[in-house]
């Protein structure tokens, strides 16, 4: 089923929307949640909550790219679950490392101005990613969207961990420079 048809099911409040979303994007959402949570039960809970989140978001939202819309909901729910589980203790997973790596090149949205600029930031990051060579873009997205470990990315692309780290470092530096040139306050 095409994305537009699935979105139309949400707008019509048809329960089939959830079934179709899971059939088409369930694997992708589970991969995102599992890479963040590393727990099957929490992963399934977040994916189920993703369908509920999509149900409540549509209408009024009519996403053009359903995969990314659902992926964002899954990521946010997964990050929130990590925050709630680690409020009393420090997490030893990939999430803190990933967030620390991006800290210097992505501004914080925790201000009123930041909230307003989030959409512009998203647009600029997408433009930046589209300008990258395919391999660099893929490595960057695997690390910072799918929250894969360096070892997983190395294995996926048959590269050394050192090479992956260099690509990520250079790409983060380029992203920081790009955003500064575009007037994004860091």
Account of the protein in words:
With 186 residues, the chain is mostly helical. 74% of the residues lie in helices and 0% in strands. The chain has helices at 3-11, 16-37, 40-57, 66-85, 94-102, 112-131, 134-144, 150-157, 161-181. It is globular and about 45 Å long. The protein starts with a helix and ends in a 5-residue tail after the last helix.
Task: Produce a short descriptive summary.
The chain is mainly alpha-helical and 186 residues long. The chain has helices at 3-11, 16-37, 40-57, 66-85, 94-102, 112-131, 134-144, 150-157, 161-181. Helix 2 packs across helix 3, helix 3 packs across helix 4 and helix 7 (134-144) packs across helix 9 (161-181).
Mean pLDDT: 86
Low-confidence stretches: none
Count of beta strands? 0
Class of secondary structure makeup: mainly alpha
- State Rg: 17 Å
Oligomer: single chain
The amount of helix comes to over 70%
Distance between the termini: 41 Å
Tell me the strand percentage band: under 5%
Broad shape: globular
The run of helices and strands is HHHHHHHHH
Total helices: the number is 9
Question: Major beta sheet, specifics?
Answer: none
């Amino acid at each position: 089923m095409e994305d537009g048809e699935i979105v139309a099911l949400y707008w019509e409040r048809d329960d089939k929307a959830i079934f179709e979303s899971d059939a088409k994007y369930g694997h992708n959402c589970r991969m995102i949640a599992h890479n963040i949570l590393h727990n099957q039960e929490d992963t399934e809970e977040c994916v189920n909550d993703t369908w509920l989140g999509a149900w409540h978001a549509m209408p009024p939202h009519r996403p053009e790219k359903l995969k990314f819309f659902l992926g964002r909901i899954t990521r946010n729910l997964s990050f929130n679950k990590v925050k709630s589980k680690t409020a009393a203790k420090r997490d030893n997973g990939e999430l803190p490392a990933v967030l620390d790596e991006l800290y210097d090149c992505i501004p914080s949205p925790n201000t009123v101005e930041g909230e307003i600029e989030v959409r512009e930031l998203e647009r600029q990051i997408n433009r930046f990613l589209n300008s990258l060579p395919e391999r660099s873009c893929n490595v960057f997205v695997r690390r910072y969207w799918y929250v894969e470990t360096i070892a997983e990315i190395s294995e996926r692309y048959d590269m050394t961990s050192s090479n992956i780290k260099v690509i990520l470092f250079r790409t983060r530096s380029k992203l920081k420079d790009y955003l500064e040139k575009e007037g994004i306050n860091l």
